[in-house]
Amino acid sequence: MKKVVEVITDTLKNKSLYVFLAVTLLFFGIYIIQNFTVDTYGYSVEIAPAIHLVNLGRLISGAFFVVLSGITLEARYMISFILAILATVFSMYKLKEILKRDKKNEKMTILISILTIINFSILELYMFVEKGIMMLSVLFVIMAVGNIEKALSGNKKAIILILIEMFAANCCYQGTVGLFVAIGSIYIVKNSKKISEFIKNNIIVGLLYAIPAFLNLLIVKFIFHSNRLENPLSLGEKISKIMENLANIMKETFGILPDYVFVCFAIIVILLFIIKIIQSKEKISKKVLNFFFLIYVIAAVVVAAVAPQIVSAQVYIVPRTIYCLGALVAIILMLMYQRVKTEKIVDISIILCGIIFLAILYANF
What we know:
By secondary structure, this protein is mainly alpha-helical. Helices cover 72% and strands 0% of the residues.
């Protein structure tokens, strides 16, 4: 108990926590003014939203509405709003603490944490009355990410914790769980010294992602018989629709950002990483390996974003279902700081670019 109190005290003393709170309120404080999506009006019926969400496998979301069924929709909204703000703040704080294990630059870890959690896809998560539970899903994923390295080393407790946290994340909202694989690819790279380790670590992270997701899928299919799994498209049709959607998303980001802004910032970070690889005094083999890892991580983020579409009956790509794709720039930065050394001027340039990107994002929210 004493240790728990110390952790809470240390957390509350950490200045970065209040930076994250200020940024979160700047972006989402306006949502204290109640607003609802069209389908939210059906949630005014006390038990209806719980049945609907449970049928989608979102058991924690359903439980949220059951527990609060005796109060007004407006009161539920306010509770959910507060929970969303707290979950967003602590997701960034927890991620920063994880990144600090490898990168001691406080400003950079704060920036990367913000860019990861507050990306163009998060806006849609805040549009729903169950926003608090959706953001709780992100927090569960980040908690699971914190245990990846221990899991890769064979720690059974870490493996069990990840499975529990990822199942809880799926039961909150399935659209965010791809972030586990996206960030997990960074730790696969870090902990793979040989090809055999690289293959093994991919399998471990893949299973830690897939087992809770598959369990959630079984609940949807065999217990609640969701019609979202009926009349599936063929695999070829799904891949075709996914590729078509991805090209538009990278360009237009669903109209959230001006055209090409997201892809331009991604290209800037990629080019900077490539320049640092070329400039490094590493052996050619190490440089080639870094190029491979860059391609691998980008592919992992994209695959993690669209994987749920493959197992679903239909392809339904909206911002909230590809949450981890919005974190692409941040995840490339994680890899860059893991693989190459950077000068102070590079760090300052990245921080300035990150602030500009966040300013553009804020202006378009």
